[in-house]
Amino acid sequence: MISVVMPTLNAEDHLARTLSALVPGVVQGLIKEVIIVDGGSDDATLEIADSTGCRIIRTDHERGLQLWQGCRAARGDWLLILHSDSQLGEGWMDQVQVHMKNFPLRAGYFHLRFDDPSILVGLWAEMLALRARWLAMPSGDHGLLLSRALYDTTGGYKDQVAFEDVALSMALGRARLRPMGASLTTNADRFHAKGALWRGIAKSFRFLAYMFGFPPKPPVKKA
Q1: From CA 169, how far away is CA 154, in angstroms rounded?
Q2: Domain 2-112+137-187 -> CATH class
């Protein structure tokens, strides 16, 4: 019934834990398939995906393209979009089933947490929560559940290098988005790679630029 679509790139450190949280959904028949859309991993990501029975699609590492291709290949009536380092929390199946039964014309997102108790990361999580609540623009870290019919109606993900989550949220609009009660815990290591403060500031400026109509800058291509 549900196709889980997950973009990956060198995700071996977190992928197994993320997939383990989905096992009850597979066992009970709620999840039809898990699609790993890989952007060129050179670690054990694909081995983990293959050993756990995931469908694998290989593509470029731009997340918008990954999600577009993954959703296009999905065979379920519902789509669940997750990042590879985001683990669904207790009670997620009940919340998903309630949403599917009672809100088929809306997209649902989870309550976001990070696995880091530091003040800066907590502040960033709160900023993302405010963005989801007041601007109706949940981030990709929130996860997203929506019917295939609703996805197709909005035009789906765009093949763009960044803010594909914002573009889809804008296409959905506030009336077709709702928070779900279950939590989702995302790894915070990437905040420390460049420093939590600098990463938050840079991301905020890029978000504002995108909202004012400036397209996201393509990544530098390696020779």
Answers
A1: 9
A2: alpha beta
